[in-house]
Specification:
single chain; alpha/beta; Rossmann fold; eight-stranded mixed β-sheet; disordered N terminus; disordered C terminus; binds adenosine-5'-diphosphate; binds magnesium ion
Length: 283
């Protein structure tokens, strides 16, 4: 049975578009899922697409903070399911980019009784509003919250750092994704340190990709600006002069929408950005 609040919203939805529903997962916590969700989402919105970000990380909810929208989260998906509000009231529009919205699933763990079916209906109703991308920020771990978050997705992005513990968990998650019918999976390697790779103290992005056997979406360098941007509630990709990780996130976003097929050189990224500009200008 459709939930009444959700059905009502679907009836008034905009033109149907082909929505891509992508879940951002990892296995190991703290590897950069939320950072990736905020930056990829913001980048894709800036490229002109309508994007809804879904914070499925209950309890450790922090996507709103990264986007600087924490004071505007009045309602969550739990309120919709309990009949307290409509979907459009829980979808918060970004102040800077109106084609970017945020939906939090729940503000506190006690009020979390979202089922897999509810989650699927909820995401279907968000898709029906005409978003090109619905990006779900997955909770840490691989329990019920993880299963709920991946079940509405057609695609997944597995985030890992170049550390063996994170890679092993990423491998496990890749297996679970496949077992749950998510076959379109890509890899994002975060917190890469080129100087450590040069010293043979860290696996390269390519090494990680080969270990996991998942197609690569991108490599994001370790960058102290990530922390600054988190504290400011302003995703890196909004900076006028992009930092290394900002460029890398932008490139990953372009690759996600199928607009770029090369990788930046993490040792000389600005050469990469020039190349990118040429690419855009000269086609
Ligand atoms: P997750 O959502 O997977 O738990 P977060 O996105 O919250 O991970 O990131 C965990 C921590 O790592 C945060 O403090 C964040 O600022 C930091 N972080 C993430 N990516 C980078 C990076 N590329 N460089 C430096 N710090 C990073
Ligand atoms: Mg997170």
């Amino acid at each position: 049975m459709q939930h009444p609040q959700i059905t009502a919203q679907m009836d008034t939805g905009s033109q149907p578009v082909n929505t891509r529903t992508i879940v951002i997962t990892s296995g190991k916590g703290g590897v950069g899922k939320t950072t990736a969700t905020a930056n990829l989402g913001m980048s894709i919105a800036r490229l002109g697409y309508r994007v809804a970000l879904v914070d499925a990380d209950i309890g450790l909810r922090n996507l709103d903070l990264l986007l600087g929208l924490e004071n505007r989260v009045l309602y969550t998906a739990m309120d919709i399911l309990e009949g307290q509000c409509r979907l459009d009231q829980a979808l918060i529009r970004d102040k800077r980019w109106k084609n970017l919205s945020l939906l939090a699933i729940s503000k506190n763990r006690q009020r979390y009784n979202v089922t897999r079916k509810n989650m699927e209906r909820l995401i279907a109703s968000v898709c029906a509003l005409g978003y090109h991308f619905v990006i779900i920020d997955c909770p840490a771990g691989i329990d019920v919250g993880f299963i709920n978050a991946i079940s509405p997705a057609q695609e997944a992005l597995v985030v890992t750092t170049p550390e063996i513990t994170a890679i092993r968990d990423a491998d496990r998650v890749a297996g679970l994704l496949e077992a749950n019918g998510v076959y379109d999976v890509k890899l994002l390697v975060n917190r890469v340190r080129p100087e450590m790779i040069q010293r043979n103290d860290m696996m390269s992005v390519r090494d990680v990709q080969e270990m996991l056997g998942i197609p690569l979406l991108g490599g994001i360098p370790e960058d102290s600006h990530v922390i600054v941007s988190t504290n400011r509630g302003e995703p890196l990709v909004l900076k006028r002069k992009l930092t290394l990780s900002g460029i890398a996130f932008e490139n990953a976003a372009r690759r996600l929408i199928g607009k770029q097929d090369y990788f930046i050189d993490l040792k000389s990224p600005y050469k990469g950005i020039f190349h990118k500009m040429q690419h855009i200008i000269f086609g």
